[in-house]
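stage 2 :: seqdesign
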C-alpha cells in the first residue's frame, strides 16, 4: 500500500477508535459528573444563558461547551453518555482535519495518537475543542489572517477561558520578532498604519466574542458572580491557586507523560528542526511558558502544545532526522517494560478482575511485534508503530475492561447503595461527594441534596454521604448517625451514614 494511503487509513482508524467507549460507560467521577449536574440544572431550571451548579452561577468554565451538550440531550437524552462526549468527538475529527491540512496525514496521526488528546476525545471535557480552535487560530495567524485568527481564539475563550487569549497574544509577540515568517499580508509587506489597523481590529474581535456573553452574564450574576469569576477563577488560579498548585518547573518534569508516546521523538525533532521551524517552537513556548507561570497546574493544560509537537515530528520523520528510529524504539520498549512491571507487581485488588491478565499478555505481544517492525521498516512505518502500540493496548481496555473501569470510576456503586436506603431522596445529603450520574439513574435520585456543613446542620437529613477524608469537618453533625455502608470510587472511600 502506498505511504499516503497507508497514513490515511491509519488516521481514519485513529478516529474510529475513540467510538469504542462512550456507549459502554457512565460519566466518571470528577469534572464529568460535575458537568453532568450543570447540564441537569440547565434542563430543570432553564438557566441556559448563565449555567448554575447547586443553584448558583457556575463560574469554573464559560458556557459554550455546556450549551452544546444541553442541546444534544434533547434528541439523545439527559442520561446519554453520547450527548456529553459528542462535542469532544466532533472536535477530535475537526482537529485531525486541521492537522492534515497544515502538516499532512502523518502530523494528524501523531496528534491523534497522543494519549492525552486521544483519551480526552472520549470525555465530557472541553479540552479537545479548546485545542482545535487554538490550532485554527495560530494557523491563521501564521498565514497573516489576523481577524480569522482572532475569531478562532475568541471562540476558544468561550469554550474554556482566557488562556486562549494569552496564548494568542504571546504567540503574536514572539512572531513579531521575526515578521518575515508570517505569510502575506505580513507586517513587513504592508504599511505601518495598515499593520496596526489589522492588529487593532483583531484584538477587538478577539475580545468582543467572549464579551458578548460575559457582559450580560455579569449583569445577570451580580457582584458576587463578578468577584468569583475575576478574583477567584481568573486571577486566583493565575497567582494564588487554591487547587492544583505546583512549582513553575512542573510541566517540564511531566512532559514525558504529557507527550507520551511521542516525548522522545519530540526531543529529537526539536533538536533537529528548531532553527528552521521557529514558528512551531514559538507555539510550544506560547503554551508552555504562560501555563508554567500560572499557580494552578494540570497535565491537560499542555494539550494545546501537542499539535505543534506533532507538526515538528512529521517534519523530522519526512526529513529523516537523526535518532528518529531510536526514539520510536525507546517509546515502544517502555510499553513492554510497563507490561512486565504490571504483571510482576499486580495490585491484589486486580487479581480477580476478568481480562487483566489478558491485558498484560496482549501488551507484551503487541509491543514486541511493534518493536520488531519499528526496528526494520521505514521511518514512516516505524512512527506508525509508535502510535499504534499504546493505542492497541488502550483499545483492549475499552473493549474488555470497561465494565471494571466504569465501576471503579463512576458513581454507579454509590447509586446502587442509595437505591437501597429506605428514605425519600430529598432526605439524602451528599457532602464532599461526587455528583450522581449514571446512564440509568433513577429519576427520584435527582432530588438528593448536595449540602455544605451549615445546610447539613439545618436540614438534619436521614442519610449523609461524605468523603472519608472530609468526615472530620462534619463530625458534630454525624454524632447522631451510624455508618451503614461504604463505597470506593476513583481510589477514594466514601461512607454512608443514616439516623
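stage 2 :: out
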Amino acid at each position: 500500500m502506498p505511504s499516503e494511503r497507508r497514513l490515511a487509513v491509519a488516521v481514519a482508524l485513529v478516529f474510529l477508535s475513540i467510538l469504542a467507549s462512550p456507549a459502554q460507560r457512565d460519566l466518571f467521577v470528577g469534572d464529568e459528573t460535575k458537568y453532568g449536574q450543570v447540564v441537569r440544572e440547565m434542563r430543570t431550571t432553564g438557566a441556559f444563558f448563565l449555567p448554575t451548579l447547586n443553584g448558583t452561577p457556575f463560574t469554573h468554565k464559560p458556557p459554550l461547551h455546556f450549551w452544546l451538550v444541553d442541546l444534544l440531550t434533547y434528541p439523545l437524552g439527559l442520561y446519554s453518555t453520547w450527548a456529553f462526549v459528542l462535542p469532544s468527538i466532533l472536535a477530535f475529527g475537526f482537529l485531525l482535519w486541521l492537522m492534515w491540512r497544515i502538516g499532512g496525514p502523518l502530523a494528524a496521526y501523531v496528534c491523534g495518537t497522543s494519549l492525552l488528546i486521544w483519551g480526552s476525545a472520549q470525555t465530557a471535557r472541553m479540552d479537545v475543542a479548546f485545542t482545535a480552535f487554538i490550532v485554527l487560530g495560530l494557523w491563521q495567524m501564521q498565514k497573516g489572517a489576523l481577524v480569522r485568527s482572532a475569531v478562532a481564539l475568541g471562540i476558544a475563550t468561550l469554550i474554556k477561558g482566557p488562556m486562549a487569549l494569552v496564548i494568542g497574544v504571546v504567540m503574536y509577540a514572539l512572531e513579531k520578532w521575526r515578521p518575515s515568517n508570517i505569510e502575506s499580508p505580513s507586517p513587513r509587506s504592508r504599511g505601518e498604519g495598515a499593520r496596526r489597523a489589522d492588529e487593532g481590529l483583531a484584538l477587538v474581535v478577539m475580545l468582543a466574542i467572549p464579551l458578548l456573553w460575559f457582559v450580560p452574564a455579569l449583569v445577570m450574576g451580580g457582584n458576587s458572580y463578578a468577584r468569583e469569576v475575576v478574583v477567584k477563577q481568573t486571577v486566583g488560579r493565575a497567582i494564588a491557586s487554591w487547587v492544583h498548585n505546583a512549582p513553575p518547573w512542573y510541566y517540564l518534569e511531566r512532559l514525558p507523560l504529557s507527550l507520551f508516546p511521542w516525548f522522545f521523538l519530540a526531543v529529537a525533532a526539536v533538536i533537529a528542526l528548531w532553527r528552521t521551524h521557529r514558528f512551531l517552537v514559538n507555539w510550544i513556548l506560547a503554551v508552555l511558558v504562560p501555563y508554567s507561570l500560572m499557580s494552578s497546574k494540570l497535565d491537560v493544560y499542555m494539550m494545546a502544545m501537542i499539535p505543534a509537537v506533532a507538526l515538528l515530528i512529521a517534519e523530522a520523520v519526512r526529513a529523516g532526522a537523526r535518532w528518529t528510529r531510536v526514539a520510536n524504539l525507546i517509546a515502544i520498549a517502555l510499553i513492554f517494560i510497563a507490561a512486565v512491571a504490571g504483571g510482576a507487581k499486580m495490585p491484589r485488588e486486580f487479581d480477580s478482575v476478568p481480562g487483566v491478565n489478558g491485558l498484560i499478555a496482549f501488551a507484551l505481544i503487541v509491543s514486541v511485534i511493534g518493536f520488531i517492525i519499528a526496528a526494520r521498516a521505514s521511518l514512516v512505518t516505524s512512527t506508525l508503530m509508535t502510535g499504534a502500540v499504546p493505542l492497541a493496548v488502550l483499545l483492549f481496555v475499552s473493549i474488555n475492561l470497561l465494565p471494571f473501569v466504569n465501576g471503579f470510576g463512576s458513581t454507579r456503586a454509590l447509586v446502587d447503595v442509595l437505591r437501597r436506603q429506605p428514605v425519600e431522596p430529598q432526605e439524602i445529603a451528599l457532602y464532599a461527594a461526587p455528583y450522581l450520574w449514571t446512564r440509568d439513574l433513577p429519576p427520584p435520585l435527582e432530588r438528593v441534596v448536595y449540602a455544605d456543613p451549615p445546610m447539613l446542620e439545618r436540614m438534619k437529613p436521614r442519610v449523609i454521604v461524605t468523603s472519608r477524608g472530609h468526615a472530620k469537618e462534619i463530625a458534630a453533625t454525624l454524632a447522631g448517625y451510624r455508618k451503614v455502608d461504604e463505597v470506593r470510587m476513583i481510589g477514594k472511600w466514601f461512607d454512608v451514614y443514616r439516623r
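stage 3 :: structure notes
- Residues 240 and 295 are 6 Å apart (CA to CA).
- The first strand starts at residue 52 and ends at 53.
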